[in-house]
Design a protein that fits this description.
The chain is an alpha/beta fold and 326 residues long. 32% of the residues lie in helices and 16% in strands. The protein is elongated.
């Protein structure tokens, strides 16, 4: 690589539209790497890299030590629990995320999971295919009309979920201690300051907060026990926010009606995972934010985020640590 070109590491899985944005940039050398790359091979690539877009690849102190020229990192998505943000901030390196690029996709997946659970989608499909038509009367679906949903987190995704729930004429509660109550009320929702008091009211709980030390095991045995036995819990945020053992226990004991899970503590989830053995659990492979449309939006946003920093015009609103620009 010539010394006047800047090397950008991009995962091979990133949407081609993102690569295409670099075709006319003679000052940039894009270098691909597989999502399954090992840590040693990735660190070797980092030695002369100016920036990197990250899919599932972690970036922590060892990676930072291997990257003396790194100026910017971008997530192809919005979650960043696999990135050591304080370490980046100490080096004045911004971490950029995809903004609203996948928020529509995640909001729609949350609605799909809630609706599928309420309407007993897999069961009804099986009844027809197995010739058990009249067994439908033994396990009727429920309406979402006038049911209460509790949304955990009122950011880019939670606000969209709220709009969709309001459109279905549900009562919407919002728990987010970092959002002003006035903003939540202005959106037609009820702000909640006491999570424990709100849980027994909810027919649905859907999680849309980041995974942080504050939210790890946020839904533990004690909080799950406060939910109605007829309620449903949906997680399209991050694995580990729900205590999976505690969830398996309440579902098995009939103390919770069902769960929709897109994310697991360990991914891919092992085939012998206890939650996969339960008929009242609807699962998907961490795909909520990944659609044909969002893949293109995320790739475009990630590359533009990288270039904005390298070109000296950073897109501050997509930076997790914008203080590095000051």
């Amino acid at each position: 690589m010539s010394t006047n070109r800047k090397k950008l590491l991009l995962p091979d899985s990133m949407g081609r539209i993102g690569w295409d944005l670099l075709k006319d940039r003679d000052d940039i050398e894009p270098v691909g790497f597989p999502n399954t790359i090992g840590p040693d091979a990735f660190r070797a690539l980092l030695e002369d890299a100016s920036g990197a877009a990250l899919g599932v690849t972690p970036f922590k102190e060892p990676e930072l030590a291997a990257a003396p020229r790194i100026q910017v990192l971008a997530r192809i998505g919005v979650g960043y629990d696999a990135v050591d943000v304080p370490a980046l901030t100490r080096r004045k390196i911004p971490l950029m995320v995809a903004g609203t690029a996948n928020s529509v996709a995640v909001a729609e997946e949350a609605m799909y999971l809630m609706t599928t659970l309420a309407k007993k989608g897999p069961l009804m499909n099986a009844l027809v295919r197995e010739g058990r038509w009249w067994d439908k009367l033994k396990n009727l679906p429920m309406e979402m009309f006038e049911k209460t949903v509790l949304i955990i987190g009122f950011g880019r995704i939670g606000t969209r979920v709220a709009k969709r729930c309001l459109g279905m004429e549900m009562q919407v509660l919002v728990y987010d201690p970092y959002i002003a109550a006035e903003k939540i009320r202005a959106a037609g929702c009820e702000p909640i300051s006491d999570l424990e008091a709100a849980l027994p009211r909810a027919d649905f709980v859907t999680i849309h907060c980041p995974k942080t030390p504050e939210t790890v095991a946020m839904f533990n045995a004690a909080r799950l026990a406060r939910m109605k036995p007829t309620a449903y819990l949906v997680n399209t945020a991050r694995g580990g926010i729900i205590d999976e053992r505690a969830l398996q226990a309440v579902l098995s004991e009939g103390k919770l009606a069902g769960a929709g899970i897109d994310v697991f503590e360990k991914e891919p989830a092992p085939l012998d995972h206890p939650l996969l053995k339960l008929p009242n659990v609807q699962v998907s492979p961490h795909v909520a934010g990944v659609t044909r449309e969002s893949v293109d939006r995320m790739a475009t946003t990630a590359v533009r985020n990288l270039l904005s920093v390298l070109d000296g015009t950073p897109n501050r609103e997509n930076a997790i640590n914008p203080e590095v620009f000051d």
